[in-house]
Structure formats: C-alpha cells, structure tokens
Amino acid sequence: MNDGRDLDRIIAFLHDDLEHLERVMREAMRSVAPVVPAIGEHTFGGGGKRIRPVVVLLAARLCGYRGPRAIQIAAAAEYLHSASLLHDDVVDGAETRRGRPSVNARFGSKLAILVGDFLFARACQTLVEDGDQDILASFAESIRAMAEGEVVQLTRSFDPDITESTYLEIIGGKTSSLLAASAESGAILGGVTRAERRSVRDYGAQLGLAFQLVDDALDYAGQEHDLGKAPLTDAAEGKLTLPLIATLKRCSTGERDAVTAMLKSFALQSAAGRAPDRDEVRRVAECVARHHGVESTFERARQVCAQARERIEPFVDCEAKRAMQALADFVVDRRH
C-alpha cells in the first residue's frame, strides 16, 4: 500500500494545471443566486481526489497536448462528476459526503438537485464553447450512461438475483463511462490516431471499473474516518455490489436464504423511512467476510487495473505515461 504517495506525486506533477483548474471551477459557480457559489464552495472545497480532471490532463500530455483547452475540459469533467454526486446523495438520502454534511443535508434536497442541474448545464456550456464535436459526443454518451446506470441500480435495489454482469453494466455506466470520456478527451486534444484514442479511452474505462470495485470493497472493509461515511451502507441502501454478489454465489443455500430475508427486511424498512436494523446489516457483512467477498473484489480490481496499464503500454515512455501507470496503482492501493 502506498498510502496516497502515488497520487501526491501526480498532483505535484500537475500542480500548476490543478491550481488553474480550481480557479476556473470556482469562477464557474458565479451566479445571481448567492446560494449557488455557497454550495459550489461546499462541494469543491470538500476535498475529493479530482481523478477525472487528472485523467484529462494526463491523457492530453501523454498524447502531446499542453494547451489551455485541457483545463476547460478537465473542469467540465469535474462539473459532471460533482453534479452526479449531488443527485446521487438526494436519491440515497445520504447525510454525509467526504466526512462532512452532504449538500442535501445542509442546504436541502431541492437546492441540491437544482445546483446539480446548474453544474450539468455548466459542463455542457463548457464543452459547447470548446467546440470539438468528438469531445462533446464522448461526454454526451457518458451523461446518458451515468443516468442509465443509476436507473438500473435503483430499479434493482434489494434484488438478491442481480448478476455480476448486471453489476458491471451498472458501474460501467455510473463510474467508468465518465473516466473513459475524460481519458478520450485528452487523446482527442492530442490529435492521435483512432486506435491510440481507443486505447486511451479503454485505459479510462478500466480505471473507472477498478475505482468502483475498490469503493465497493471498502464499504465492507473500510473505516468511517477513512471513508468519510458510515461503512456497510451499500446493502442497507439496497445496492448489491460485487462483494455481496460473489458471496451469494459461494455461500450455502441456508446462508443465501438468510441474506435474502434480510434484504427484504431492509427494503421494507427503507419504504417506511426507517434505518435498517444494524444487527442484520452486521450479519450480512459477516457472511461476506466468511466467503472472502472483499478479497475477491480487490483481486478483480487489481486485474482490471493491470488491463488499464496494458492499454497505454505502447505509448512512448514519458512522465505522463508513468503518472498514468502510478494512478492505476493508487486506485487499487487506496483505502478511502
């Protein structure tokens, strides 16, 4: 485990660009409604790894582009990500985000939704102003996939029969699609061949899958002070992720029946607006631990990140390439 040292080195490498990015993002939150910049400051000032902007900037450098358009495209990627988080927290009823009150908890769900819409609009405006139809098309496809992934996940809540392939489709839309578009946009800025562009996009897609796999494993294995939220929330909210899906494939019929009954209980409690029974949540987590659901999910993430590294291996060795490889290492080694 590198404890974030890889990410620290990447941020140092991109220091000037990321400083510029922060100024651009805060400027974009200017509005006649004073609450918009207030929510923007709460959102952007709450930390976050800026993985999507970092991927845009690194992919652009990998492909030979160092101009100002990369900052704007990187900002658009972060607007889309932040907008999706605002909406997700409303859907999930999340009270915290990155160890602080979520926007919906502090400002209310209505404002969270509306400012999320504002950020989506800012992203679209930025991409249209850039004027590259290929970049715009890539991010438009990502927005569709993100929304579709959320819909599929919500409609399959508390469903013990969800398959691994459906789960991968969900996270492919929710998380992977935006990182794929972020990487591809950098390659488009660099004017590389179609094959090279596809390889860079695949890097982003695989990185996104690995990132979500680790997130889902950490929900069962992480600590609250690291995660910035209470652990063991996914199953309680009806999200069946790979640690539990893998467990349900391996466990005994009796264990599967018990977990299914608890998921039904969670669904009833959720419909009634009540928090799930923590003892039942703990028993689901214990079943996952018995069948090594977390360990197998981490191993799957490592395999996916190895594939991401392979996709950019043909590119000429440079600092950006080494940073992208280090980013893949960080994604699987992180603990929050």
List the helices and strands and how they pair.
Blueprint (H helix, E strand, L loop, with lengths): L4 H9 L1 H14 L6 H10 L6 H12 L6 H24 L3 E2 L2 E2 L1 H5 L1 H22 L2 H23 L8 H27 L3 H28 L2 H4 L14 H9 L2 H19 L6 H13 L2 H20 L6 H15 L3
Helix pairs in contact: 1-16, 2-5, 4-5, 4-9, 4-16, 5-7, 5-8, 5-9, 8-9, 9-10, 10-15, 12-14, 12-15, 15-16
Q: Your description of this structure?
A:
By secondary structure, the chain is an all-alpha fold. The chain has a single domain, classed as Farnesyl Diphosphate Synthase. Helices cover 76% and strands 1% of the residues. It is built from 16 helices and two strands. Strands 1-2 form a two-stranded antiparallel sheet. The chain is globular and about 60 Å long. The model has no long low-confidence stretch (mean pLDDT 92).
